Amino acid sequence: MYNTYARPARDLRNNYADVVRMLKEHNQVLITNNGKGEAVLISAEDYAGYEEYLHKQYIIEELKKTQAEIDAGKAEWIPAEEVFAEARKIIERKKK
User: pLDDT tens-digit profile of 36-52?
Assistant: First the structure.
């Protein structure tokens, strides 16, 4: 679980090492300006995990859409061999 620390924007300049230390400990840092939140910082490692999560969510949503098309009889099944053969053709064209 993240701990969230609020720090003024000037800390990015004046206390950068402290901010980075917080991020390395898997904390979030809320950057404020005049007492209002402007941005949230997370570590690069945590960001990569977030991106992976978003990608998985995207794939799940696309699979749900596809399943709905199948259920509605709007999808045409194509044998895997045909799909891979077409993919190989596209890859070969891009190599040239």
Answer: 999 999 999 999 999 99
